Amino acid sequence: MSQIRKPPTMADIARVTGVSPMTVSRAFKTDSLISKETRDAILKAAEDLGYVFDATASNLRSQKTDFVAVTIPSINNANFADTVGGLSETLSARNMQILLGYTNYDMQEEERLIEQLLRRKPEAIVVTGGKHTARARKLLENAPIPVIETWDVPAEPIGHFVGFSNAGVVREMVDHLVRSDYSRIAFIGGDVGRDTRGSDRRQGFLEAMRQHGLDTSRLIAAGPPPISMREGANAMARLLEQFPDTEAVICVSDLSAFGALTECQRRGLRVPEDISIGGFGDYEIGSICVPTLTTIDAHARDIGRKTGSLLLDILDGKQNVGDVLIEPQLIVRESTR
Amino acid sequence: MSQIRKPPTMADIARVTGVSPMTVSRAFKTDSLISKETRDAILKAAEDLGYVFDATASNLRSQKTDFVAVTIPSINNANFADTVGGLSETLSARNMQILLGYTNYDMQEEERLIEQLLRRKPEAIVVTGGKHTARARKLLENAPIPVIETWDVPAEPIGHFVGFSNAGVVREMVDHLVRSDYSRIAFIGGDVGRDTRGSDRRQGFLEAMRQHGLDTSRLIAAGPPPISMREGANAMARLLEQFPDTEAVICVSDLSAFGALTECQRRGLRVPEDISIGGFGDYEIGSICVPTLTTIDAHARDIGRKTGSLLLDILDGKQNVGDVLIEPQLIVRESTR
DNA sequence: ATGAAAGCGCTAACAC
DNA sequence: GTGTTAGCGCTTTCAT
């Protein structure tokens, strides 16, 4: 019967091939000095023995892991998935692998995660957001690797950042709505204090409304982030009961905006004739639902790509690498008039 | 100014604390024999020095990484995200970390990914689907770790599996529609040959239709998987042009089903009065859009949880651990009459 | 409860 | 182009 045997090592291949372990090691690096015949013989022996390269040993000896640690709030979010996709795309050119963790929109969880990730000795760490617990911040500051914060413009950047002002994008949306003659405008978002980017968007709403001299009381807190479609719908129901004369509502994301839209449909309210809806994130649903949703494209994939190339520049020792300010774009569609 | 210094090691802590490196090592394990005073002193020194545990060294010496490798087709998919969430939830009780990779619905990419993941010496590997390239299969068979295939019932399981028959679920949907007196039924899915689970669902459609003696020509291939909402809408447009008398359409996922629904709305077709729509996956959108979507719940999170506990049983050396057959559930909603 | 010695499997550094 | 030596930072093992 089958029995447990120790997997073969480079030493085994060396023995079989009659070369030194060092030569075997060279055969597995593409750019190393080694004759074609020797390499072919070694690779063949490796295949025959069922050899699998041991990255744990390589990592320790070379003090390189080819890992880039990444934290995102949730794996099930098209925006963050796109950012990770763009990053992964860029890094795979260097055979670097992403070590992904998710924080569930919780700074305590982020702290734990960062600590765990740093133990794996990544070459760099990319975190979502610019606010962290004091301890997480210290861990990042002390880490002997590049740190990039994304999806935000940190008040005090730890290393570099690739992001935009979450307050700013909602200010733009408010400005647009005011220009279109709306004045009774509401905001649907998550509970304050957990999802900092969502809180920042809410803050941007408040600032812009005050600046226009408009009433800022139409605020619905829909629960802990992320706000689902269902929660968006429930929030819309509450909004319509508390403030039935609302003319437009800005939702913290397209998902909650779509939920809000369905609530209007169930109540026989016409969008945008009876009430207008704006979202955030340019999720696919907003471009295809009926009516389509006015939203803000934060260029999620671009954030990932630019984070990747910034990272490669830093790791290559390039000087004068700067931060990247992303410019989100307002997309006006059918859900606002 | 700041200068690059080597990060502290356990030896440094040992020196500062006046104990041996071995004792320092013990201080970081929760269950080891060590006096409270010694441990506290060591942990304090570690904190002061800014010590970060080096998992690469630990991994090599102990031949344990606490990694579980996982491949999924896409990170941006609520079903697979739920499975990963359920798995992660279960594994975190053992402090195991998921090493995640995505295949982009491509078996060649899966092969590359599996090879890369195995080099990191995971304790187990979980793959999505039961079909693989010959080489990927060989890699998995030779891997000295448990292998679990999910989201499918493999023809020849490599190790264990946690899944369901993708053909079977669509057969059930067809049976339900036929019982409800539909006969001109169509199927919208991806191109054949890439996403094997989608292909299996299409196959289940064909089998069931033949069994009922119904016409199987209403097949729309919407492009390479995954089929987006937009592609679902485009496919619906083609379906309505080619087969205007279609009574019901089954879509390979709720996302394409929603796209199809919006196409009907744009054309002024009523769902389900003029045409009925069924989806797959019980995505949130299907439970909230107007009308809500008839679908099949594959219990994605459950697949992850059960994969996790199966894995822990195997790693604990439990005997008689079996495979897990998931029983997806038909959910009848407003989009079918 | 703590320590000493050895070594996990690879590769940096140097030699030829 | 290939070999030798040493050692990355931990933890296994055995001793006290």
Instruction: List low-pLDDT spans of chain A.
Output: none
SS-derived structural category of chain A: alpha/beta
Mean pLDDT of chain A: 96
Radius of gyration of chain A: 25 Å
What is the CA–CA distance across the termini of chain A?
Answer: 74 Å
Across the major sheet of chain A, the strand order is 2-1-3-4-5-11
Quick one: CATH superfamily of the largest domain in chain A?
Response regulator
Summarize the structure.
Chain A is an alpha/beta fold and 337 residues long. The first copy, chain A, has helices spanning 10-17, 21-27, 36-49, 55-62, 78-92, 107-119, 134-142, 166-179, 196-211, 229-242, 254-266, 284-288, 300-315; strands at residues 67-72, 97-102, 124-128, 147-150, 160-163, 185-189, 219-221, 248-251, 276-278, 295-297, 324-325, 329-331.
Describe the model.
Chain A is α/β, with parallel strands linked by helices and 337 residues long. Chain A contains 13 helices and twelve strands. In chain A, the strands form three sheets. In chain A, strands 2-1-3-4-5-11 form a six-stranded parallel beta sheet, sandwiched between helices. A four-stranded parallel beta sheet of chain A has the order 7-6-8-9, sandwiched between helices. In chain A, strands 10-12 form a two-stranded antiparallel sheet. At the A-B interface, helix 4, helix 5, strand 2, helix 6 and helix 10 of A face helix 4, helix 5, strand 2, helix 6 and helix 10 of B. Chain A binds a DNA duplex (16 and 16 nucleotides) through helix 2 and helix 4.
